[in-house]
Amino acid sequence: NAGVTQTPKFRILKIGQSMTLQCTQDMNHNYMYWYRQDPGMGLKLIYYSVGAGITDKGEVPNGYNVSRSTTEDFPLRLELAAPSQTSVYFCASSLLPDPTYEQYFGPGTRLTVT
Amino acid sequence: GNSVTQMEGPVTLSEEAFLTINCTYTATGYPSLFWYVQYPGEGLQLLLKATKADDKGSNKGFEATYRKETTSFHLEKGSVQVSDSAVYFCALKAAGSGGYNKLIFGAGTRLAVHP
């Protein structure tokens, strides 16, 4: 049981380039989330999804896009990379939104934009 | 608004020392409170949680008590081990914060335990 997997682990982008961060979960969870973690800060929610075909914005969605065509996958797209998007990105999933249902996190993707 | 404040790190301890990592929160109503741990190179894992006032969450020797009167959820462990070296995040889910289990995180506290 792999849980939540993310690729790549590390990436360096030039300003204006685009890329997709991949996230896959094998727990058949309905809810999936993308967070970013800036140095010395807590995690902030970028986007979330409550099921295949349904996504919505979190606290810091600007500069990102998501899609959810299957239950398992929830990719995060950066269209025009900017230095402000240098961060560590975490994908997470949960079966249901209630606090009794744990959020499971992937190992993260460290992105640097120069 | 809702927020979480935790003590700045790094916290450096010798093995078998007592650990306290302070966490206080601001929230309306009665939030649920969590501690997550991030070991080097891994994602965050839920360590313990408490969903109502005076509840005590515990796991792997760690404990935290939900104190509404002081709006705190301090993490404690009686005797730390080198394997406890990690970053610890305090988080809350505010009451009525929506159906997607929105978590608000503190900045994290790095713990380093030396033999």
Describe the structure.
The complex is a heterodimer of chains A (114) and B (115). Chain A has 114 residues and is mainly beta. Helix content of chain A is 0%, strand content 49%. In chain A, strands 2, 4, 5, 6, 9, 10 and 11 form a seven-stranded mixed beta sheet that branches. Chain A has a four-stranded antiparallel beta sheet with strand order 1-3-8-7, with no helix packed on it. Chain B is built from no helices and twelve strands. The model of chain B has no long low-confidence stretch (mean pLDDT 91). The chains are: A mainly beta (114), B mainly beta (115). The A-B interface holds A 4, 31, 33, 40-45, 48, 50, 56, 58, 90, 92, 94, 96-108 and B 4, 32, 34, 36, 41-46, 49, 51, 89, 91, 93, 98-108.
What key phrases describe this protein's structure?
heterodimer; A: 114 residues; mainly beta; 7-stranded mixed β-sheet; 4-stranded antiparallel β-sheet; 0% helix; B: 115 residues; 6-stranded mixed β-sheet; 49% strand
In a nutshell, what does this entry contain?
With 114 residues, chain A is mostly beta strands.
